[in-house]
Amino acid sequence: MFGFLANDIGIDLGTANTLVFVKDKGIVLREPSVVAVYESTGKVCAVGAEAKRMLGRTPGTITATRPMKDGVIADFEISEAMLRYFIEKVDKNKIVPPRVVIAVPSGITAVEKRAVKDSAINAGAREVILLEEPMAAAIGSGLPIAEPTANMIVDIGGGTTEVAIISLSGVVFSKSIRVGGDELDVAIVQYMKRAYNLLIGERTAEDIKMKIGSAVPIQSGELSMDVRGRDSVAGLPKTIHITSQEIREDALKETIQQVVDLVKSALERCPPELSADLVDHGFVLAGGGALIRGLDNMLSDATGLTVIQAEDPLCAVANGTGIYLNSLGDLDRKRSRVAIN
Ligand code: ADP
Ligand code: MG
Q1: What are phi and psi of 190, to 5 degrees?
Q2: Cα–Cα nearest to 16, from 3, 34, 1, 38
Q3: Cα(87) to centroid(ligand 1), Å
Q4: In what order do the strands lie in the sheet with 170-177?
Q5: Residue ranges of the chain whose pLDDT lies below 50
Q6: How would DSSP label each residue in 54-77?
Q7: How high is the pLDDT of residue 153?
Q8: C-alpha to C-alpha distance for 240 and 242, rounded to whole angstroms
Q9: How far apart are CA 330 and CA 23, in angstroms?
């Protein structure tokens, strides 16, 4: 009887971004998973985009943190505050608390699952259903997960990269590493210091990665840009001109190789029947890291398989939670086998 009145929402609680899908509306919120807190009182000062602008720029009295680390909740109180803020922001119908589907990494422990559920309940959810993230990403990318065939998804997020092979609505195999887009930013910070004595923040590094980052030479012509930072010797602001080639070869290469190695090792462990399916269908790249120029080509060369970039890699998981919500019966609330609890 609640089904008719209540808001059903799906949440992709990522290390970098949190997305909220509201049933019948689609993705209504997309903000960085960042919370700024007053140090003296521990009170939340800002959440999301506003808090991200504060990262690296806070006065001593405020700290801006990312409560999700390595794909799991690193700070319960702060994650709960963040979840509450996001749920309240989208849930205008306060009469009935929402039912919430949350995508969580497939490797998390029972204790961590409990913690995510408790946080969401404390943050105002009526009922919480956990959905494995690769499953959500696969559903959101339109893969036929219920078929007796291999569906492989590689999700490159901020803090983690996760590979999963799904068949008959179950995760047959999954593997993840604590390396993702953030590590690429760190590599760029280190490169700028090493090569030019230029100190830059991670936000600037992320900007460089998005504007000129690449995994393989850019066919349409290499790119370049100006970067501002502080000279580590003179201590003064300065501007340096950099190219996509140096960023690829001297900053990003090693980290990107770790992602390639992960994909290869997952393929080596894939049951033979499913391997054969992958030769036919290839695999899907999702998560913000999928947007690095040429990564699809690089992975395709390394594996010999077709690599398909999800239509909207940053939204795949959230869209998957939404499609899953739609598949939940309102009245009988029959659980599909896909959900984990
Ligand atoms: P999470 O699921 O961990 O929240 P996301 O899937 O939202 O992560 O991806 C965030 C990561 O993707 C960040 O490291 C971000 O810098 C990176 N990213 C986003 N857009 C791009 C882009 N156009 N090129 C390269 N990296 C990108
Ligand atoms: Mg993600």
Answers
A1: -65, -40
A2: 34
A3: 22
A4: 170-177, 161-167, 151-156, 283-286, 307-309
A5: 1-5, 330-337
A6: HTTT--TTEEEE-SEETTEES-HH
A7: 97
A8: 6
A9: 12
**Residues ≥6 apart with Cβ < 8 Å to 200:** 188, 189, 192, 208, 227, 228, 229, 230
**Does 312 contact ligand 1 (Cβ within 6 A)?**
no
**Residue 16 CA, closest ligand 1 atom number:** 4
What's the gap in Å between 51 CA and the centre of ligand 1?
A: 17
Q: Quote the tokens at residue 231.
A: 């000279």
| 16 ligand 1 Cβ < 6 A | yes
If we measure between CA atoms, which residue out of 144, 186, 173, 162 comes closest to residue 281?
144
Measuring CA to CA, which residue among 71, 75, 74 is closest to residue 160?
Answer: 71
Q: What is the pLDDT, as a whole number, of residue 2?
A: 46
DSSP states of 233-249:
TT-SEEEEEEEHHHIII
Give the pLDDT of residue 71: 67
Map residue 108 onto helix, strand or coil: coil
Looking at residue 328, its pLDDT comes to 81
User: What is the token pair recorded at 216?
Assistant: 């393989």
Q: What pLDDT, on a 0 to 100 scale, did the predictor assign at position 261?
A: 97
What's the token pair of residue 193? 């210091």
Residue with tokens 């690296």: 56
| Beta strand 72-73 pairing with 68-69 | antiparallel
Distance 161 CA to ligand 1 centre (A): 11
